[in-house]
Amino acid sequence: MGERMKLALIGFGVVGQGLARILLDKADELRNEQQFTGEIVAVATRSRGTLYQPNGLSIPKLLDAIGRGSLNQYPDEARLARNQDILTLIRECSADAVVECTHTDFQSGQPAADYCAAALESGKHVVLANKGPVAVAYAELRALAAKTGKRLLFEATVMAGTPCIRLAQTALAGCRIEEARGILNGTTNYILTQMEGGLSYADALADAQRLGYAEADPTADVSGRDAVGKLLILSQALFNRKLTIDQVAMTGITGITPADIEAARAAGERYKLIARVSREGCSVRPERIPTSDPLAAVSGATNAITYQTDLLGPVTLVGAGAGGIQTGFGLLADLLALPQ
Ligand SMILES: NC(=O)c1ccc[n+]([C@@H]2O[C@H](COP(=O)([O-])OP(=O)(O)OC[C@H]3O[C@@H](n4cnc5c(N)ncnc54)[C@H](OP(=O)(O)O)[C@@H]3O)[C@@H](O)[C@H]2O)c1
After folding, report:
1. pTM score, two decimals?
2. What pLDDT digit, counting tens, does each position of 124-176 carry?
């Protein structure tokens, strides 16, 4: 593959554009310090068109086109193909790696799981921000990757680019991880932090929506479902154990009142939405933890995870859990880890 890696970006929203922006802004640094050049040859969206240019697409023109609403705004040029069927595009394009950053579906993992399978079957590495295929179809996709000699990497699916998967699988290799417990959803942590500052749940949620942390429909975050999805991924990555969403005990934060927050504070504790996973199982629920716990100090939309290990005891990682650039970096870290 040389030092130029050809990429197909499936999904070109906040995260896909974040990765493109990094590849553009850090092109010199990546080339000089990492001997890496990412060249985007294909981009696909659901409703804004697809593009394939075997000679490489211009990132400024891509960002300009999507900024104007559609990849169809990308200027015509020789060998440029538009609006292909996405599975055909994935199979037939010349990319070395497919970057999957379409919509997450925790029930079926689709259509992204099919996109990943098509990529692996056609000899391409797969790097994901999309949680669905890892949560639902990891074993099948991993077997396919082993069969085709390609890699399936997913650092960006949990805690954006904060390297919680690589820390566990690489830096802590040789330690036995007994349990992971973390704050894996920034929206709910932001809401709980604001409630500690005196806001009601409704006002804190409105604040989170105004700042773009929470969706117009915040159910996936506040119910705990988003954190559960991340636990499914951690269960696979840390313990090689497949769980389904209904196997996880889940309680969200909608029942937490200012009185609960105050009672915790009076006892020297804080409420956090804690996601836990071990070989025995997993849960997501609001827990009162002592202020001396490193997770208690994690405020706002920040994420954190503590790995309980046999040789080091607890190891805590704190960092961004969302954002286009932050998640784009998670994808970049995986791309840099691919064999060149
Ligand atoms: N944003 C974050 O901070 C963050 C962090 C970690 C992980 N993630 C995950 O990363 C993924 C992308 O997130 P995002 O924030 O970039 O979402 P987004 O802004 O909504 O963008 C999603 C992109 O995927 C495309 N898409 C959706 N369904 C598709 C399909 N069936 N086939 C082809 N393309 C499809 C969309 O096309 P249209 O524009 O035509 O709809 C759009 O280009 C999600 O799975 C998300 O859970 C996001």
Report:
1. 0.97
2. 999 999 999 999 999 999 999 999 999 999 999 999 999 999 999 999 999 99
Q: In the predicted model, what is the mean pLDDT of the chain?
A: 96
Is the CB of residue 183 less than 8 Å from the CB of residue 298?
yes
The tokens describing 138, both together, are 């990891």
Q: Which atom of ligand 1 is nearest to the CA of 132?
A: 45
- pLDDT tens digits, one per residue of 35-70: 999 999 999 999 999 999 999 999 999 999 999 999
Atom of ligand 1 nearest to the CA of 158: 6
Which helix H or strand E contains 136, and what residues bound it? helix 131-148
Q: Measuring CA to CA, which residue among 168, 164, 154 is closest to residue 317?
A: 164
CA 253 to CA 194: how far, in whole Å? 13
Q: What spacing in Å lies between the alpha carbon of 197 and ligand 1's midpoint?
A: 33
Contact assessment for residue 317 and residue 167, using Cβ atoms and an 8 Å cutoff: yes
116 alpha carbon – ligand 1 mean position (Å): 15
Using DSSP's 3-state secondary structure scheme, residue 152 falls into: strand
